[in-house]
Records
---
Amino acid sequence: MATACIGIGSNLGDRQAYCMDAIERLRAAGCVILKISSFIETEPWGLTDQPPFLNGAVLVETVLPPHDLLKLLLSVESSLGRIRTKPWGPRCIDLDILLYDSTVVESSELTIPHPLLHTRAFALEPLAEIVPDAVHPLLNKTIRELFREVHQ
């Protein structure tokens, strides 16, 4: 079994309900939910002319290898009605693999750790709550350290 940190976000509709429904769908698909962060409201990143986001993170235990976990996340997003219209645009649900044990993956479909993780306070803050001592496998810094750096 592997542990993975999944970032969860929503800025359309009942944001809290979408996030919690996504977590339940991950559980129903066989992921063991180990920890769920608090959810925080954040301003949009990238494309700023859209509603604020509700962001959080979940620590899961899974038998799925990284690419299969990605397929599951995309399936959950689709089942909740996510339609991809433009990069960083509004969405009812967004699920990202932020960390997967200490694994590094670089492929055309998937990059782990998430390539922008260390620059995004909205992703690091929930992670710092549930896995503060997890180490970014490329930067050799803890999530707590990375959050402090972007939060200064």
---
Amino acid sequence: MAQRNQFENASRRWRSPKSALPRAVSARYDRRIGRVLVRLNTNLELAFSPRDAEGLEKATPAQLSSIEISPSGFGIHFPKIDADLYLPALLEGILGSRKWMASRLGAQGGKSRSAAKKEAAKRNGLAGGRPRKLRPAAA
């Protein structure tokens, strides 16, 4: 009897935070605007560009046409490319793993063309460019 009560209490605790979080109830790809649209149980709609999500960045519209929602409503699955997204992370603006997000951010930073960067590149060029890496002497 005690185990039954423990199970019921644990089930209740698991359901309560889950019910408070937004869940996906439908998802589709809109070719016209080039966005994945996810409708939530709160009647809000989340839209994002597949280019900005890890695993979807090179997907074609045909590959994005089929989207499945997990039974919990927290997962979005793209079966044609075997990619998954986690809804709570999407709501926080996290569209991929930490490493993937950092690489995207780094690529943007490398494209910077500030006056200071141009001046530093000019100075490096006048000095013969970047110094070559020295190889350690063989023992």
---
Amino acid sequence: MSAQKKKTKKTTSASHKGWRIVGYLALVVLLLALYFLFAPNTGSFTQGDYVYIHTGADYQEVKKTLEEGGFVSRINSFDVLAQKSGYPQKVHPGKYLIKKGMSNFSILRLLQSGKQSPVKLVITKLRTRQDFIRLVSRNLEADSAVLQHILTDPNYLSQYGLVSNTALCAVMPNTYEFYWNSSAEKVFKKIAQRYVNFWNNDRKNQAQNLGLTPQQVIIIASIVEEESNKNDEKPNIASVYINRLKIGMKLQADPTARFAYGDFNIKRITSVQTNFESPYNTYWVRGLPPGPICTPSEKSIDAVLKSPHTNYLYFCAKKDFSGYHSFAANLQEHTVNARKYHDALNARGIR
């Protein structure tokens, strides 16, 4: 073999070797890229956890939240991909579920999509505006100060026929679904829409037949709600208060005295509560309180609307502590029933 041929073969071999090295390097780069993209990069949680991105947060805040919250274990590789994808300029606020084993690519795709996990806001019985505000603030980003303003703004509430004292009439127990970053106004508007829908023409006519407004019905229902959890006797309880209203008799409802006094752990109402001066204490004032003393259930509201015609003016808890009540048409009958119940309380040492 000539020297020229040997030189050419050597050059070709070196060239092939060089390309093989380039190929190996390219493969390594590709594998690293795929690793950065698709390898699991979540924290130590076993199932998954939620990351909350606040309204107005920039990318640096998001990155800090992901790192310090343990959502991303290798923040540098995440940062490289985030920068390349343009995510820093497209941050979407919300609540996002980061599942165990998610990669940089899947985390970024989720955050960029803005497809956040919805929040179920479960409203049961609430007693005050502050209870409602706290419930919303614990579950949603909605500004509590804005919500407080909405609940006391007569101009805003007037669209629902409400005032500050009756604002909670619009808050009906149910499960409502929101995005975590919903504004206070969106939250109240959605909840109030259920109130609007509930008061259809049939219910409005029922209220009118009783000589009551929807808000007055809810106020009575709130008292009934606090008096009993027995749905089958709520209509009779409602009839007592409606009968008292009709003849101008004080309602003298224990739950209103407890509400006015502000201690909801009291089990036995005494003169300390009944003598407490407040427009909400129906031992102190005649007629209805200026607003509901809780957010009554739909069953309690309908119990008022469908209350039977009775001659009941009194009721008290039965001595067997079953949760049911004994009803009476006159004070003499009621005194007998009340004595039996108070003797049972004394026997149990309930003060």
---
Amino acid sequence: MKNCHVCGYECENDAEVCLLCGAELKTFETYEQELKEAEKKAQEEAMIIKKPVLAASVDNVVAAEIYKDVLRDNGIIFTCDESEDAMQIVFGGGFTAQEIYVNECDLEIAQQLYENVVNAEVEFGDDLFEEFEEFEEE
């Protein structure tokens, strides 16, 4: 005998439909697998950017990676104009800007987060390295 996963009624082992409620009889493992698949599909659909808008065009590779980490930490889904592993170097040794897109509904917070990243950037001037040069001379 197997129990219906909907109403709990005891059905014959070879029954495919519950006689009491009419639910399709499934094993617990099958039912659990279907739930996992439905959850996975819902998560994948949530990851789709339905109305992409440009949040920032970042020309500093390090700042772009920091910004993407900040977006991830804040649960904002984004996409870039290039693959995650790509680093494009242009003539003269510079880097190309990385354009980062978010959902239209997340644009305002994404731009505020970008401002926070830009304002938190540390500038490395020559005076910073003078301390190290003095240390090396001693």
